Write the structure tokens for this entry.
Amino acid sequence: MAGRAEADNVAMRGGYSLATIGAKHVIDGASELVMDALDAMELAKGKGAFLITDMGTADAGTSLDMMGTAMARVRKAAPGRGIFLIYTDQAGNDYNAIVANVLAESSPLPKIDELYVSMSPIGFYRQIVPAGELDFGFSATAMHWMNGKPCNIPDHVHMTGATGKAREMFTEQGRRDWETILLHRARELKPGGRLVFCNFGIDEEGRYLGNTGGISMFDTFAALWQRFVDEGTITAAEFEEMTLPQYYNTVDEFRAPLEDTSSPVHKAGLRLEHIETRVVKCPFREDFLKHGDAAKFAPAYVPTLRSWTESTFRGALVPGRGAEAAQAITDAYYQAYVDIVCESPEGHAMDYVHSYMTISKQ
């Protein structure tokens, strides 16, 4: 969730990890890639503390189990090395929530000897640690947040529904943002260091978050927001301002700067070792398929959508209405989404679509 502009209007709601169990499933599914990457690094031969970053961590809850397993792997392979884990996110993130999760009784981290934890409000659009000091970097479900919004989308809320000039502008900034992220990591990484990223994207079949064959989540967002315009609840200008500053790369777009020998990323030494796409099923939809109760499904499902969109919706309203009025409209918006799902639950789901990548520094 890091970067220059995100802090303005994409802060995560409290209890993020509780509302986004699917994001934890994504990270749990990356554990094998993480362990393979660590094993390839010959940890016992490294000097000094083993330095790792968890980028775009939100409240650290979704990655906590995986991090515990990974840090235990490092400790076993290199018993003489200290471990320095840095959690980073945007400046407006809830860092108290990270502290609470990391120090919770159920947390695996305090049980690992010589593990030191720190937090940084730098985000991943800037260099987080000194050049040549990073051993391993991890990020999941975060790097789709852009380093600022290139423009408003006049007839949708997300780049997947954008056309014409707006789509072109998002595509170009998405390319620049991905290159920027990689160049900072290239400077940070030691030779032989690794990155494992699980990034939202568009897979080979054209699927993306909330659009895997049922009702399109982003189209529903846009249609409901337009209904608020038609009913006079919000203005057309407020509709446009509620443009999510996100970009979903295709697999080819993820690969390009890492494989093009003329790109600055390739010249900086980063190499793509592995990439694959996966769909992780929406856990709330899976539960609904078992119990069949729409009145139970809808209020359980919509909060996970709200957890990462609310501040952008509310931020589109605050300048002209004030915080209290904006919050009232926002509450009404998500209640309307709950009502839609209650009335016709079939097809609603937020399946996660990610590209899982392992990247090394030559």
